[in-house]
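JOB MANIFEST
job_type = single_chain_structure
chain_count = 1
residues = 294
[input]
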Amino acid sequence: MTKTIAILMPGDMGHAVGRVLREHGYDAICALEGRGEATLKLAAEAQLRDVGSIGQAVAEADMILSILPPSAALSQAKAVVDAMRASGKTPVYVDCNAISPDTAKQVGAVIAEAGASFIDAGIIGLAPGKGRGTRFYASGPDVAPMLALDGKGFQVIGAGETIGSASALKMVYAGLTKGTWTLQTAVLLTAQRLGVIEPLLEEFEFSQKGPLDAMRAMVPFLPADSARWVGEMEEIAATFASAGVTSGFHDGAADIFRLLAQTPFAEETRATLDRTRTLEQALETYEKYVPSKA
């Protein structure tokens, strides 16, 4: 039975997952050695048990949920495998990161070298406690350990026996959501730069009211997450390319997030967002970081 679950690492999503697991009777642990102040604060809010190092987390855990920026997914798996070899303990390893199917297979191969079970997972939705609910899609030869967590603060849905299927589902889903936000931002920035933003917004108000409302609700607040979403867009681009579909849309999406990450609003967190900022105010600032024309 899974009793102790390690959350590596307890960021915005991870700490909330750990919190609901703890509330459902699991021993939710984390490894805060070398982590930043923000992560320490989130772990404390969720009342996760800090065991210090990744090595100690591996030694104590029955299951590891890897939840961190996609660029760190492979290196994290390698660090966990080193700890598995040192301790002789091989807990189930679940990669919950926004990575391409090919990257998921690479991570799975690394974990298999240590003799541990691997589950490919993709998270869709906001963190537990926010929005309409969090769903974990899980794929691989044996997803029973993840399915056992269904209803423990989130939903778990089987996505087949193939490693990479859950990640593929996450990639195409985020390709629409985050891809749409970046396309909207690019359209608005172009209008701002060309001096037609006011008539464009007036036309949107008349003929595209729903999309405009969505833009006002999302576009001013993208910078807070933009730096960590660059890597996700790169993984989505790789996913599309592997399917023979153009990667250009999400290469461009990554560029938009890189631009937003340069703005002063990128210093905000989801907890400190200035919700009074308007779309027009955000665009005025964003435009300053658009490269000058040659």
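[summary]
Residues 204 and 211 are 8 Å apart (CA to CA).
The first strand starts at residue 4 and ends at 8.
exit_status = 0
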